[in-house]
Amino acid sequence: MSNASIAVTGGCLCGNVRYRASNAAPEVAECHCGQCRRQSGHRYAAIRAKIDGMEIDGEDHITWYAASSFARRGFCSACGSHLFWAGDGRDYFGVLAASVDEPNELVMTSHIFVEGRGRYYEMDDGLPCFEGYDTPVGG
Ligand SMILES: [Zn+2]
Ligand SMILES: [Zn+2]
Description:
Layout: E1 6-11, E2 18-31, H1 34-40, E3 44-50, E4 54-57, E5 62-65, E6 71-76, E7 82-87, E8 92-96, E9 107-112
Parallel strand pairs: 2-9
Antiparallel strand pairs: 1-2, 2-3, 2-4, 3-8, 5-6, 6-7, 7-8
The structure holds zinc ion (2 copies).
């Protein structure tokens, strides 16, 4: 997470879930793992927002699905929009870039879990690729 922090608002497609994050990082990491592919329909691009500083309206509309033993994925139970990734013990949520109201401040910076990617597309934007969260591929 960089030192720069921004405030963002966002929500799901139907509007039942709205959030404000006062301490978010603008860097977008795109995850290529099989879980993200299957849940999102393609690729899962998210920023990080400190939980301390987040306000969520409509939490009762969020379904949390534990896709692994260490993380849950929150989505709107009415419209299905993917919203949050919550890893056990982490002080931030992954917040789906696509859910941010004004995403123009966000910037794609990396690809993560690239070994799990679908081979139907190429990684051709020149951004750093990581096998996991922070281990450079080939480096
Ligand atoms: Zn919704
Ligand atoms: Zn993933």
